[in-house]
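Model it.
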Amino acid sequence: MNLSFTVSRKKIHEFVKSIDKLRLLRLTIAITIILALISTAIAFSQDLIVAYGDAESHLNIAKRVVHSITPGMAQLGGIWLPVPHLLMVPFVFFDPFWRTGLAGSIVSGAMFIISAIFLFKLTLLLTKNKYAAFIASLVFVLNPNILYLQSTPMTELTLVAFFLMSSYFFINYILNENDIQSLLLAAFFGFCAVLTRYDGWFLVLFEALTIILLYLRKRHDWEKTEGKLLLFSTLAFFGVAIWMMWDFLILGDPFYFTNSQFSAATQQQNWLKRGELPAYHNLPLAFAYYMVTAMSNGGVIIFLAAVAGFILYLSEKKGLHRFFIAFILLVPFIFNVFTLFVGQSVIFIPHLTPVGFEWRLFNVRYGVLMIPVIALFFGYAFFKAKNAGAKILLIALFLMQFGLYFVGYSKIISLSDGIEGLSHAKRPDAENFIRKNYDKGLVLIDDYARTLSIIRSGVPMQNIIYIGNKPYWEVSLVAPERYASWIIMQKDDDVWNAIYDKKDVQGRLFKYFKKVYTSPQILIFRRIK
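Modeled.
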C-alpha cells in the first residue's frame, strides 16, 4: 500500500512565518520580564517604589481589606475604582510586601508584561509585520516613564493592560464583524478597564458608539447590530452599574465618586478658586496640556515619528475601517482632554504652567496612557518606511531619544513628579518620631490628609483608626480617650478640627493625653498611663 501526501509551498511559508512571529513574541516577553525585574530592583534600592503619595494610598486601601480594625470589602471605599486594589490584596497580606510597596510592583509588573504582549499582537494585527510589532513593543517597554511606573503601586499600568486587551479584541471585531468571540472578550476587558480607572468608562462608550457607526456606514441588518450592541453593552457597562450600586449601598449616594469631598471634581474646585485650573473651559489649552504631557512621557523624537506614522495610517486608503480603529486608539487622548476641559482633572507641566503657580509639576503621569499608542504608530512608521535607509533612520531616532534620557537632557517626567512635584509623598520628621517611639495601642489619624506615612511609621494597619473605621472614627472625634492610645493631627485636618479646635473636646484631649511631639504643622499626643 503506497501512501503519499503533498504540502503546498504556501502552507510551508505560512508555518515558517508563524514560527518567526512566535520567536519574536517570546523575545519580547523575555526582554519585558528582564526590564521589569531590573527597574523594580533599582526603584526598590533607591526607595522610589512609594515615592508618590497616591502609591501608599493604593497599598493602604488593599491592606485594609484584610488587616484593619474593621476589615472587609467596604474598605475599598467609593472613589478609586476597585480592581487595582483587589489585585493587590493577596500580596499586601504579607507585611513586608505592603511596607516596601512590592505588593503593588508585582501587580503593575504583571500588567506591564501583558501590555507588551498585546501591543505586539495589536501592531501585528494592523501591519501584518512581525518586525514592526517588535519595534513597537521595544518603544513601549524601554520607555523610562513606563519602566518606573510599572515598579510602583500606581494604577496606570493596570489600565494600559486592560485598554490594550479590550482594544485588540475590539479591533479584531471591527475587521471581522462576525467574530462574536472577540466582541465578548473586548467587552470583558472593557468591563475590567471600567473598574480600574474612569478612563475605562470612555473606552467602552466609544466602543459601543463604534458598533453603531459601523452600522450607519452600511445601513443594513439593524436587528443583528442591535443584538451585538446589547451583547457588548450588557457586559461592558455592567462595571458602571456595579460601581454606582456599590456607592449607593455603602455610602448612600450612587454618584459619591463625583459628589463627595474626596472626589476629583471637588478637588479641582479648590484649584479653580485659586485661579489655578488653566485648561478649564479652554479647549485649545486642554488639548495643548495633554499633548505636551503625552509628548514629554513618550519622548519628543519618538512622539513626532509616531505622529508621522499616524498620518500615514490615516492616509492608507486600503486600510479597512482605519478611522474607526483610530477612534478607539485615541480614547486616552480624548478622555484626558475632555476631563481637563470640564474641570474634572488638572495637569501642571513646566512647559505650559504659568510661573506664578504654587506648583508647576503635577499629574504628568497621565501622559503615559498614550505611550502604547505612540509606540504602535512608531511601529507603523517603521512598517511603512519604503527602504532600509528609512528604517535605519527610525531606529537611529529611537536610539537618539534614549540617549537624551541617558544624558539627562530629557527628563523622566513621571518619576520627577513623584520626587519633586505635588504628587510626591511627604516625609515629615513626625514620621521618624512615631517609628522610634510607638509601642502599642490604637492610633487616631486623618489618613486622607496624609499627615505621615503609615507604611513607614511601623504602626500595624489593624491599629489605625481612620475615617473608614466605623464607629471607631466617629466616637473618637467626640471622645478621643475611648479607643486611641495615640493621636496624630495635622493643622486643619479632620482630627485637628474636631478635637483640637473644639474647646470641650480639647479639654478631654489634655485630660487623658500628653503632647509628646510638636511641630508647626503636626502634633502628636500619647495616652497618659
